[in-house]
Amino acid sequence: MRSFPLLPASAQPGTRGGACDPHRLRHRIGCQYVIPVQAKGGNDQLSTVQAKQDIACCAEKFPNLVCRAISAQFIDDSRIAMFELQLDESGLVRTAEERHYRLVSADQITESDMAGYRQRAAGK
Question: b/e string for 38-76 if b means 16 or more Cβ within 10 A?
């Protein structure tokens, strides 16, 4: 499998919450996470059953950590959709956040791109 940096193509904002809420974009210093990931490509489909099992396993094995279940689906050879999943009040798997990325080789990322990523990460 090829490994490439991810470039944001589009994003749909998720919900926001308290100081250590997994959906806050900033101020997550001090929060500790466990991140189960399921990834599918080709004709394989993401599974809500697997996501529920992943979240339950995290709650059992890591009760003091915030679970941020991630699912990734290849759209085509150069694009990937990533989802953060949560259980709602009734126990159904829901998408908390969805982002789409374009996969590129490292030589396609300029110094200017990298400076922009650093600025966004720093909240500027």
Answer: beeeeeeebeeebbbebbeebeeeeeeebbbbbbebeee
For the segment 82-93, the average pLDDT, to the nearest whole number, is: 94
Query: The whole model's pTM is what?
Result: 0.68
Facing residues of 71 across strands?
A: 38, 83
> How many whole angstroms separate alpha carbon 7 and alpha carbon 114?
10
DSSP-derived pairing of the beta strands 37-40 and 69-76 = parallel
pLDDT mean over 93-112: 94
Rounded to whole angstroms, how far apart are CA atoms 106 and 114? 11
User: Which has the closest alpha carbon to 14: 112, 97, 81, 90?
Assistant: 97
What distance in Å separates the CA atoms of residue 118 and residue 57, rounded to the nearest whole number? 34
Closest C-alpha to 70, from 80, 78, 79: 80
